[in-house]
Amino acid sequence: MNVAQRPDELEPARRAVAIGTFDGVHRGHRRVLEAALSAGLRSAVVTFDPHPRTYFGGDVQLLTTLDRRLELLEQLGIEDVLVCRFDAETAELSAEDFAESVLRAAGAEVVAAGDGFRFGRGRTGDLALLDRLGFDARRVPLVDNVSSSHIRALLAAGDVVHAAHLLGRPPEVEGEVVTGDRRGAGLGFPTANLATPADLLVPALGIYAGSALGHPAAISIGTNPHYGGSERRVEAHLIDYDGDLYGERLLVELWERLRDEAAFGSEAELVDAIAADVRRTREAKRPT
Description:
Rossmann fold; 27% strand
């Protein structure tokens, strides 16, 4: 898959473009992407980074990093992605100027977008405008109850199973593996400690079953209350994994929320609780 920051970085071609932010690349987004993939032209995506709402002062916790969004788009078969930096220059483009300087310049003939998609200064552009400008604009109906904001709310409540149904895959957390307190190793359950990007949504505090690197993983999202912690951490114990992950990017799937985090009466009770979490993680099923 080719990734460009400007239309002139793309090889000239007749393209069917899906346009949107596509945070999460959820089931609703995939309908828009399928409309571009099935159009019979070279498939492409025009997307934005950072999220446009953050430019206007909104606080958006992302479901996926840009790198993960690009990976998911490639997995679906998209051939080209144009990542438009959403800055003052982009925000000030009229809808007509955006259509010509971005879409037309990228070779777009077909443009697919979700019903209600708006673009350009003051959000004055829509698919009807693209039709008038000579594009083959294809309006894709929304999927009932499937939206990035709904998925964010589910994850904030710890409902990873329902979120997985809307995403079409398990929700994920990702980050660089960094050095932690090494308490897990001392208890017999070494963990990979993730430094997650500041703008990435991290689900509700608790203990989860999931996977990473093809291994079942018992995951703690919390503050280590047993040890009086206050800083939120994401720690994953990869079951039956033996290796050094420090400095690596790690993607962790969340399959099931097992329990609240808790402080225990003794370290022995803590070890017993973790062992029970590991047993339940081995039995957990990947949601879809």
